[in-house]
Amino acid sequence: MIVxxxxxxxxxxxxxxxxxxxxxxxxxxxYVLADPARPAPLVTDEVQAAIDAGALDRAVWFxxxxxxxxxxxxxxxxxSRKLGLGSSAAILxxxxxxxxxxxxxxxxxxxxxxxxxxxGQPAPAWDARAxxxxxxxxxxxxxxxxxxxDVAASVHGGVLCCRLGPGGALDVAPHALPxxxxxxxxxxxxxxxxxxxxxxxxxxxxxxxxxHRALLGAAAEGAIAAVxxxxxxxLVAALDRQVDALAELGDRAGAPxxxxxxxxxxxxAAAEGAxxxxxxxxxxxVSIFVGAAPPSAAFLxxxxxxxxxxxxxxxxxxxxxxxxxxxxxxxxHVSHV
Length: 337
Known about the structure:
Helices cover 42% and strands 19% of the residues. The protein is α+β, with helices and mostly antiparallel strands and 337 residues long. The protein has two domains: 3-176 and 317-325, Ribosomal Protein S5, domain 2 (2-Layer Sandwich); 182-310, GHMP kinase, C-terminal domain (Alpha-Beta Plaits, 2-Layer Sandwich).
């Protein structure tokens, strides 16, 4: 029984989501595979946290290579690097789901299958909300906090609007992006550690709370506008507001949230009516080109020259599921070339 969980792409709301602003996150059609019949190659911190909490009995084999950049030619596989697509959350979600599916009795599975077949739907082998809450708690415990939007994307799939509520509860709802929208994803040749970036921003909040508050407030306004955007032009403007605020936030915090490569390429994206923004915490990993049309050949060449490689993927992938029982993925929410 092979289970797969999608990675994620943060479209809007980075950093500001931790202050209560809405974030837009999409599941992508790049997956972690988990096989409970095979021994685990290693136990991630997040999986260990789930074991320690009693939400998981053991780790299982997984393959997260689809969420990593290939190793350079001639280099060992271990030389590959993460892309910033939420691999730690996807590994955790896939592992929890694989063990939940294994523990389901044949009789219970048959009952679910019969009922689901009558409704024309595949039979889930786990309670999605329980899976989400277990994964969210373990992921936050291992990482010392975090919004959990990557966990939400891996569990639920699609495109989601997420907002932190009282007590750290994460409210999650499906979100429809504007039509006629093109999103391209670019990977940097530099990997970033989210925890390091967040720590520098927290340090800024301690030494200059007014600046921290003002800049995150500006980013939050852009995040709210992104949720309300009814067309590509409005979404591009909302993303640009966030990138402007996050660039200054990074400058003041000593954290390269908006990298030099992105800064150089932003005017070229703007000339094509698009926004070029870091995805998530920034500092490298992946960035997104968002506009009404795909980037031109000239922009793609400029991106390559700046060390950014296009990574093909589509948004709106289904959430965690048993691979053999998966229905054909739904049409992507975003036009993507």
